[in-house]
Amino acid sequence: MVQVCVNGGRGSGDGALVPLSPGAMADSAAEAVAVGASDIHVHPKSPCGEDTLSPKAVAATLEQIRSQVTVPVGVTTGAWAEPDPAARVARIREWTVLPDHASVNWHEPGAEQVAAALLERGVAVEAGIWSDTDGAARFAASPLGPRVLRVLAEVTDQDPDTAEGSARELLAALGPAHGRPLLLHGEEGGTWPVLRLAGRLGLATRIGLEDTLFLPDGQRAASNAELVAEGLVQHERARRAL
């Protein structure tokens, strides 16, 4: 499974190719699905381009994307979009249109409460476990661990020379991960080395403008679809090299 991460926390300063409006997100997601993405992770945006959990923005984003694709669509619940855990939970309970899944960063304050609120509403949870945090230990002790959809092993090491090693350390720290499926991915300079490692290990991964703006050869990507197409090639090539 290759998930497309459509936009992340990027904004207009990252270039016009980053989709920020619901319509642009939907078009970009549909193009990525057309070349092989089988799942979508998106950050709904406020009118000024900031990540938001507001019911209006979440509904508009999901409705636009679902008008063009039929694959599962997930959203972020990152603390940067709503720093107060209680307010984050309140926002989730106000959603009028529900995503198929939502990511919860387990190192963030209120992660357990946020995950519980999502599960109560019937929204599947992706447990975001970042390297260089206590997320893996907290997730291992979580009673909600066995109930998550998958674990997003997120490698924050952006150095292409060390990101693979950091990824292996993160996977070791995760251990059995409550038996849940793993999706391994990197970011910025570590994106492509970690994606190839996911291929060699037979793990799901993700690729898109949230994680990187560049192709493996250093050229700037033209779209999420271009990143997904190349990601599928790299992932399969690494898998076959075993």
From TrEMBL:
PANTHER family: 3-KETO-5-AMINOHEXANOATE CLEAVAGE ENZYME-RELATED (PTHR37418), 3-KETO-5-AMINOHEXANOATE CLEAVAGE PROTEIN (PTHR37418:SF1). This is 3-keto-5-aminohexanoate cleavage protein.
